[in-house]
Amino acid sequence: MAKKIKIRIQTENKHINLPKMRLSHLVWLVRFGLWTTRFNDSVDEETRASIKANRKEVIKIIKMVIKELKPVKPFTLVEVESKDANILIDIL
């Protein structure tokens, strides 16, 4: 059963290894990310309005994805390798 997510990002200069997080914490992180767009000056008004209008739908979709992931065995969700970076997202 999948219960956690693990994110690793490796570049030539940096290695970011985030701790394992419960899948349920993703909802909190997404909510926080959507909330912080209000204070980011680089987000234009049209995008901000779109995020505000669709916030509940985004949260609903994240919850649905988490519900679908829980019964599956652990797997690698994303593995991207490029010249200068490697990104790995595991569902554990």
Question: Can you offer a commentary on this structure?
Answer:
- The protein has 92 residues and is of the alpha+beta class.
- It has two domains: 1-21 and 72-92, no CATH class; 24-69, no CATH class.
- Helices cover 41% and strands 29% of the residues.
- Strands 1, 2, 3, 4 and 5 form a five-stranded antiparallel sheet that branches.
- The longest helix has 25 residues, at 45-69.
Give the topology, please.
Layout lengths: L3 E8 L3 E3 L3 E2 L1 H13 L8 H25 L5 E7 L3 E7 L1
Antiparallel strand pairs: 1-2, 1-3, 1-5, 4-5
Helix pairs in contact: 1-2
Provide a short characterization of the protein structure.
By secondary structure, the protein is α+β, with helices and mostly antiparallel strands. The protein is 41% helix and 29% strand.
- Domain unit count: 2
Topology order in helix (H) and strand (E) letters: EEEHHEE
* Distance N to C terminus: 8 Å
Would you tell me the overall average pLDDT?
91
Q: Strand percentage, roughly?
A: 25-35%
| Low-pLDDT residue intervals, each spanning 5 or more residues | none
Q: Rough shape?
A: flat
Contiguous helical run count = 2
Total strand count, please? 5
Helix content: 40-55%
Q: For the report, how would you describe the main beta sheet? A: 5 strands, antiparallel
Instruction: Determine the structural class based on helices, strands and strand pairing.
Output: alpha+beta
Radius of gyration: 15 Å
